Amino acid sequence: MYACWGRGWASARPAEGRQVCETGAARRGRDGAFPTRCLTLVALFVLSGCATLNDSRLFVQEPIRADRFVLADEETNVVGAVQVVVARDEDTLPDFARRYGLGYDEIVAANPGVDPWLPGKGTRIVLPTQHVLPDAPREGVVVNLAALRLFYFPEREGGEPQEVITHPIGIGREGRRTPLGQMRIIQKTENPTWTVPASVRAEHARRGDPLPAVVPPGPDNPLGAHAMRLSRPSYLFHGTNKPFGVGMRVSHGCVRLYPEDIAQLFDEVPVGAPVRIVNQPYLAGRRDGQLYLEAHAPLAEDAARWKGSLKPMEKAVAASVADDPASVDWEKARDAAQEVRGIPVPISPGSPNLEDVVARAPRVPRIPPWEEAEGRDT
Asked: What tens digit of pLDDT does each residue of 295-345 get?
């Protein structure tokens, strides 16, 4: 059987093709030969863009780039769309994460039960490339620790619509928590030198991994090629020489990004830009009249304090629908909060469930066109 990909089927006149092949089948019953005209039509179907049903390109759609969005209006707070890819033997979840602008914990949470390092040929991988914006002023940089994600709102010029740029981040591990609060960018440095804090040197020495007092620029520098210092000067936004740590709690408190992401922000974010660091594991938002809940696992310190309570989720959702509490299906909201997939889930009464959302998600290529253009396949 053949199925079409592209315009080939229409241009090859399917009704005529079926008639010729049916006639040929009857003739083949008499003389055992498939008619030349039918073979020619089948060849035309394949050459003009048709493919066998098990062709990996079949039904693949153009992917959305999930790092920059234009906001239609001030009320828009859900951006992007869920997408899926189908893995090959050589693929890993971190491969897909970097290709599609996601972090490690993000993509693992979206695909429960899938081995991050060996998902297996033919496995459908969910790309959580849809986000609810943090509940914070849309200016400068907003970091949501619980979502392990950064949002930058460039200044608008004239009547231009608001844009948002978003990237996955790595943050401070437990005991080295990235600080909350309002700050600003005070310095930008290309090819930074890392002066190792005494506390970090002592920690590494205890582990038998001594560090020098100063690490010069280069491939061994954990700050990567770009750094932006915050007004709390012990903390930076910076690149990394270990990209696999993006999307996890692995730093000493700084915010780390993929090298290509910090390079973009370095060019766009001015010195003096405001920075807000928040901690919002539960994010409620609306799009096209639909209410969504995006739920992330609370940071370990918060989880220990909350002891499984869903009151923080209920408070976040209630604040977003103060004028219409009946617009929430609370059973769906609680399910989303307990599953913590990090995917915006519709929670309006009668809305589709998460399985439906994933089933309808477009399938996109394993390697998106922008990665192929830049020649950076992980």
From this structure: 999 999 999 999 999 999 999 999 988 777 788 999 999 999 999 999 999
d(CA 72, CA 30): 65
Mean pLDDT of the chain: 85
State the catalytic residue, choosing from 167, 238, 252, 296.
Answer: 238
Tell me whether strands 226-230 and 78-80 are parallel, antiparallel or unpaired. Answer: unpaired
pLDDT at 334: 96
Active site residue 296: no
Q: Which of the 8 DSSP states describes residue 363?
A: B
Q: Which of 4, 38, 50, 254 is catalytic?
A: 254
- Supply the pTM of this predicted model: 0.82
How far apart, in whole angstroms, are the C-alpha atoms of residue 137 and residue 208? 44
Paired tokens of 275: 């920075």
Known active-site residue 131: no
| 279, 149 contact by CB (below 8 A) | no
Q: What does the domain layout of the chain look like in residue ranges?
A: 2-52, 68-278, 282-353
Fold entry, domain 68-278: L,D-transpeptidase catalytic domain-like (2.40.440)
pLDDT at residue 203 is higher than 60:
yes
